[in-house]
Design brief:
The chain has helices at 8-14, 25-28, 42-45, 48-51, 54-59, 61-77, 82-93, 107-110, 167-179, 198-204, 231-243; strands at residues 17-22, 96-101, 116-118, 121-127, 134-135, 155-158, 182-186, 208-212, 225-227. α1 (8-14) packs across α11, α7 runs parallel beside α11 and α9 runs parallel beside α10 (198-204). With 244 residues, it is α/β, with parallel strands linked by helices. It folds into 2 domains: 8-32 and 80-120 and 165-243, Rossmann fold (3-Layer(aba) Sandwich); 38-77 and 125-158, 2-Layer Sandwich (SIR2/SIRT2 'Small Domain'), CATH 3.30.1600.10. The structure holds 2'-O-acetyl adenosine-5-diphosphoribose. The site of 2'-O-acetyl adenosine-5-diphosphoribose (OAD) has 27 residues, from α2. 2'-O-acetyl adenosine-5-diphosphoribose is lined by residues 23-26, 28-29, 34-37, 41, 52, 102, 120, 159, 187-189, 191-192, 212-215, 217, 230-231.
């Protein structure tokens, strides 16, 4: 990776409050398919809009459960990559740091990040729709197991299309975006709201916004720094240059 644009490393080093928003792109180098990358994306095999919805689960709980079991298998075989590790390093180095992820793969926590806001839930957990109780899913089953308390079929503990995000998480994410002085947007196409609004909330409050993505996104023209590159290749030298 050639030298970083002037001012970027200093801005990261001097930042008091840092927020990183991540999307599927940061897990791509761990072998977890993104949503919209045509060649390897989840959309290429299935249309998540047909499966990741309350209606689909209502209509065919076994199909939806099997799709999530397949995705859980992918995620369980995946390991955090250098991009995840660099953000865990940044959490230790920055005075105040929040990690907000749209990913449901749990790889940030596995890499050692602690202050993680999971906006879209976590595929490794299941939840009882009646009671909200969450449990680790039963791997062997091909059908949603019954809630141990009330017997209702469990569902994946993730946000489905058309569902509201967990209020506490979106509030925490928005509060962090509005009070940070440096906001990193890593590996997200920036198409899905309300997560996609977060960098603009940071901009409105005068934060420096840094985007890391091999491709341009709607945010690219607004970010103070828009780096064309892979998370696993850009984040380690950037965090190293600022705090190494
Ligand atoms: P997308 O699949 O929409 O976008 C992935 C982004 O990562 C793209 O912009 C790629 O260019 C970029 N990318 C690919 N490889 C990368 C790499 N190695 N390093 C950095 N960036 C890379 O995934 P998201 O933006 O996360 O919502 O999608 C947001 C939400 O849309 C998901 O959370 C999901 C989906 O609907 C729900 O499931 C509710």
């Amino acid at each position: 990776m050639p030298g970083f644009p002037p001012g970027l490393v200093g801005a990261l080093r001097e930042a008091r409050r840092v927020v990183a928003l991540t999307g599927a792109g940061i897990s791509a180098e761990s072998g977890v398919p993104t949503f919209r990358d045509a060649q390897a994306g989840l959309w290429a095999r299935y249309d998540p809009r047909e499966l990741a919805t309350p209606e689909a689960f209502e209509h065919d709980p076994e199909l939806v459960w099997k799709w999530y079991a397949w995705r859980r298998g992918l995620v369980e075989r995946a390991r955090p990559n250098a991009g995840h590790a660099a953000l865990a390093e940044l959490e230790r180095a920055a005075p105040v740091f929040s990690l907000v992820t749209q990913n449901v793969d749990g790889l940030h926590r596995e890499a050692g990040s602690e202050n993680v806001v999971e906006l879209h839930g976590n595929i490794r957990r299941s939840r009882c729709p009646a009671e909200g109780l969450t449990v680790e899913p039963d791997e062997a089953g091909h059908a949603p197991p019954p809630c141990p308390n009330c017997g209702s079929p469990l569902r994946p503990d993730v946000v489905w299309f058309g569902e509201a995000l967990p209020a506490a998480e979106i509030e925490a994410a928005s509060g962090a975006a509005r009070s940070c002085d440096l906001f990193l947007s890593v590996g997200t196409s920036g198409l899905v709201y309300p997560a996609a609004a977060l960098p603009y909330e940071a901009l409105e409050n005068g934060a420096t916004v840094v985007e890391i993505n091999p491709e341009r996104t709607p945010l690219s023209a607004h970010a103070g720094f828009s780096l064309r590159g892979k998370a696993g290749e850009v984040l380690p030298p950037l965090v190293g240059a600022a705090f190494g």
